[in-house]
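User: Hey, my collaborator sent me this sequence without any context and asked if I could get a structure. I don't really work with proteins. Can you help?
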Amino acid sequence: MSIERTQLLSPPVGHIGTEHRAPSPTDEGKSIGPGSFAETLGNALQKVDGMQMDADAQAEKVALGGGNLHEMSLALEKADVSMRLAMKVRNKLIDAYQEIMRMNV
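Assistant: No problem. I've predicted the 3D structure and written it out in structure-token form, which is a compact way to encode the shape of the chain:
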């Protein structure tokens, strides 16, 4: 199966039927695309929080004598991994911000 040039230039599946244009000077401060960076980051943090809440609920069920120990351990591990990833992303963002602030203009 070969990839044709038109396949490489076609818009992503989520953008079918929408027009693509270059940003104009009046687009300052507006998000371009499916969601802004802040929205995407906020959604990701909400998912991390949801995983933390689910893990807490699973742990509480097991502590009260119900629930499934296996499901609780999986929920706790998912919450731990998602929190570690969120912290790594936060650290990278802080490093990038500090690097930009050190630049001479």
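In plain terms: Helices lie at 5-9, 37-63, 69-102. You can pass these tokens on to your collaborator as they are.
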